[in-house]
Structure formats: C-alpha cells, structure tokens
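User: Protein folding is very new to me. Would you mind checking the protein record under this note? It all follows right here:
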Amino acid sequence: MKTENIRVNGYVRVSSAKQAKDGLSLKMQGERISAYCQAKGLELNAIYLDDGVSAKSIHLRHGFKAALDEVYSGKVTGLIVFKLDRAFRSTGDSIATAEKLNKLGRDFISVSESIDTTSAVGKLFFTMMSAFAQFERDVTSERTLAVMSDKQDRSEKTGGHCPFGYRVIESSRSDGKVLKTLEPDSTEQRVIARIHELKTNGHSFRSIAQELNREGYQTRTGSAWDHSTVRKIVGRVAA
C-alpha cells in the first residue's frame, strides 16, 4: 500500500437534524474518517463540512468545493468521505469526480464503500467501476443513436431546432399524441442547392455568404448570411 506522503482532505455533511439523529452526525463521520486515516497511515490535513445542506445543492456546499479545490490544485493528494452519498447525489457523480481525480494523479477514498485508490486493490476496484460506468454510458449512447436513426428513417423530428431546408408538419396519431415529421421546404432547398453549387466551384464559406447576400437569398430569420451559418449548413448536409 502506498501511504507515503499521502495527505488528504476529509469531507462530512448532514442535510437535516433528523439525519444527524439517525447516526450520520458530522461528529460520527469525522471520527470514522480520522480513525481510517490513522489505521492506514494517511495524513489528514483538514475535515471540511456542510451542515444542513442537501447533496443536490452543489452551489451551496462551500465545504465540499473548498475540499475539492485543494485536491485539484495539489495542495493535498486526495479526498476521503465516510460514505459516497455524503459527497455525491448519485454513483455517476461520484465516479465522474473520481475519474477526474484519477487523471490528476489524486486519490479518492470512501470508508463505507471500501473504495481506496491509495492501494493497488483499491485502484483495481475503481478501474472496474469506471469500466462498467463507461460501458453503461456507451450502451445508453448506442440506444439513443438507434432511436434517433429510426426516427430519422421515418422522417420524424428528433428534437431541437428544425434544420434549415425543412419544415415541421404536425399530425395527430390514433393514440391522441402529436406526431412531428420533417418535410422539405422548397425555398430553403433552393438555397441549399445554390450553396452546394458554389462550394463545388471552390468558393470559401465567406465568399458563399457574400454571394448569397448579393443574390438576395434569405436566411430563415431574415438576417444577412455569414460564413459560420454557411459552414453549419454545409456540415449538416455533408453528414
């Protein structure tokens, strides 16, 4: 176990007086953190606290921010909490923060969950947790892409702004829900065709914008064409 020169900040939190009575008092958390550091040979720099603050209120948790900032800056080498939910509102949040600490070469310890990256076994366990978290993110992403692709194949609107060159058509489904589909807009499609023609002839995005303005083509908002707007349209069409 690498405990040499490991100096950590502790963090404790309760969100209510009831929580303190139920056995998660600031004092109890602090004592468990101190005992763990002593048993593992870790130097406890300070224990930061947030009293009566919800885990969701990250912007109000000044103690948590101060503890983390010192870890990120390198003033101390790690962060220790008694339990993950004292610092994070979800496992995803805890893993995201721990991943950032890992990239910076910092350590993360949770006493209750037996997570301790100061040891080889702890690092292996955390790596496995991170791998499973990444796997879940990838699976979620694949599912989202599959749904989006299926909607696009049926010309259904997938959210966000309606892309240039199309208009949204709403129709009622048999179940009472509103179905939104995309249909080509003839006027905007002519603009896209002109952009494609100019691009094929070697014009830059800036010169295309200038030519569109000169020829009197309109943007959807009626503003003048600029190179960034042209670039977005070309990129979307190319995709």
In short: The chain has two domains: 7-136, 155-239. The first helix runs from residue 17 to 24. The longest strand covers residues 43-51. The chain has nine helices and seven strands.
